[in-house]
Structures are given as structure tokens and as C-alpha cells.
Design a protein that fits this description.
Elements lengths: L1 E6 L2 E6 L2 E5 L6 E2 L2 E3 L14 E3 L10 H4 L7 E5 L2 H4 L10 E5 L4 E4 L2 E7 L17 E6 L3 E4 L9 H5 L4 E5 L14 H11 L3 E5 L4 E3 L8 H4 L1 H12 L4 E2 L7 E2 L6
Parallel strand pairs: 3-6, 6-7, 7-8, 12-13, 13-14, 14-16
Antiparallel strand pairs: 1-2, 1-17, 2-3, 4-5, 5-15, 9-10, 10-11, 11-12
Helix pairs in contact: 4-6
Length: 255
């Protein structure tokens, strides 16, 4: 299996010849956010059998990026997403499936299981609480956990279950993290609880508010290295792969 990090929370996970894409965001600018690091993902980044959307925030459920997907692509979203974001149903040719924690979807012999996340799942800024924020576990040759956006929560390891690889958010897109997020230290705590063989830090060092480059710049640049350092102390048996934008890794997992 192979993982490519395209920046922010956007990853391609290829397992058993099946490609999954997480929270695709393929633009240089989104509202007040500007991509400060990494080239935009190439066209092949939009090629996948299934796309997993963790929650409805526009940097995770981004309609123009979803519109680049090929007809027939399976789009897995939190339950209630189409009601909160009606334009989802207007995306040409995509197969839309809504899920809640515990639901499973089969994709060409692989299983995708939705798991809980602690995060505001609304379509901000004014959306009602209709949809849960989710993580996903993709099970094929490996069990890969994509956490989406989440904070630590009681029973996290039990809810996620055994995994071989964890894609964990370690930062954000602004100088301060709100509730329902993992910073580098809390992500390392989650890693210690989950106990995978390998991990990839995501959701940092890509987008930043325009005009705020000099405000707490370490929150943009440092989370990946800080996660590596905290993980070495709290989860020393886990192989942590800090990827650059567009880089890929084939983590060693034993099943």
C-alpha cells in the first residue's frame, strides 16, 4: 500500500490497487486562506475509486475540487451532508453515499468504516448541526485510519479499532487551534493510544490566512517536526513518516 500527501488533509491512499482520496482541496486560495507551501496537486491526484469527506467545513468539503472528480467516483460523506450542502447532488456523475459512525461501505473488495470524530461538523459559518464529523478506517492489505479533523476523546482507540497506519492532523490553518483539533502534542497522545505501525502527519504547513504570515509563524512551520519529536517520546515503536507536499511512502505493515 502507498500513501501520498498532497497538502492540508488531502491524501491518496492506494491499497490493493484501489485508490482512495481524502478531503480533496485543489485550489491556491480559499476565501481568506492562501496556499503558502507546496505546488497544487497534479490532475492525477483527482483520480480515485472513492473519495472520503470527513466533515462539511469548506476546506474539507470543497465543491470546486469535488467537481474535478471523474464520473462514477464514489463520494462518501457524513450523513445529512446533501441536505446541508444541496449543491452536492448537482455534481455530475458522482455516486453519493452518506454514512454515520459504525457504517461500512464496500469498495472493490475493500471496506471503509466510518468512525467518530470530535469536531464541529456543521457547514460553517451558519449551518445547523445536521452532520457528524467523521474519521474513516480503510481496510485492505492494511488498515488505514484517516482522522479528518478531531480532538482527543474518551474511547478514541476503542472507537477506531486496530489500525496499521494513522493519518493524523497535527496543526491547522491559523495561528490558534480551536476546540476539536489535535496539535502536535495531542496527536502524539492519540498515536500512543492507537498504536499503529506507521503514521503520517497531515493538516499543517499548507494554507494560512492572507496577511498573517508573521503572526505565530511557528504554528505554520513547526507542527510536523514537533509531532515527530513528541511521537518519538510517547510512541517510540511507531514509524513516523513526515512527508513533503506531493511525496509518497510505502509504510511497512505486518498483518
Amino acid at each position: 500500500m502507498e500513501i501520498t500527501w498532497w497538502g492540508h488533509a488531502t491524501c491518496t491512499v492506494e491499497d490493493s490497487g484501489v485508490r482512495f482520496l481524502t478531503d480533496p482541496l485543489f485550489v491556491r486560495r480559499l476565501a481568506h486562506l492562501r496556499r503558502r507551501r507546496g505546488e497544487l496537486p497534479p490532475p492525477e491526484a483527482a483520480v480515485a475509486e472513492a473519495v472520503l469527506v470527513s466533515h462539511l467545513h469548506s476546506d474539507h468539503l470543497h465543491l470546486p475540487s469535488l467537481a474535478r472528480l471523474a464520473p462514477g467516483t464514489l463520494l462518501v460523506v457524513p450523513r445529512g451532508a446533501a441536505r446541508s450542502v444541496p449543491a452536492l447532488r448537482k455534481l455530475d456523475g458522482l455516486r453519493l453515499t452518506e454514512v454515520a459512525p459504525g457504517d461500512e461501505v464496500r469498495v472493490e473488495g475493500l471496506t471503509v468504516r466510518a468512525v467518530p470524530a470530535r469536531h464541529d461538523g456543521r457547514r460553517l459559518p451558519v449551518g445547523p448541526h445536521r452532520s457528524p464529523a467523521l474519521g474513516y478506517v480503510v481496510e485492505g492489505e492494511a488498515r488505514t485510519y484517516f482522522a479528518g479533523d478531531t480532538g482527543l476523546f474518551e474511547g478514541m482507540a476503542e472507537a477506531v479499532g486496530p489500525v496499521d497506519v494513522a493519518l493524523l492532523p497535527v496543526g491547522g490553518w491559523g495561528p490558534y487551534l480551536g476546540h476539536g483539533h489535535l496539535d502536535a502534542g495531542r496527536a502524539a497522545q492519540a498515536l500512543a493510544a492507537l498504536g499503529p505501525a506507521a503514521a503520517v502527519p497531515v493538516h499543517y504547513g499548507t494554507y494560512w490566512p492572507i496577511g498573517m504570515d508573521a503572526v505565530r509563524p511557528h504554528e505554520f512551520h513547526a507542527p510536523g517536526d514537533e509531532f515527530v519529536r513528541h511521537a518519538a517520546r510517547l510512541a517510540p515503536k511507531v514509524a513516523v513518516h513526515r512527508l513533503g507536499h506531493g511525496e509518497r511512502v510505502r509504510p511497512e505493515v505486518a498483518r
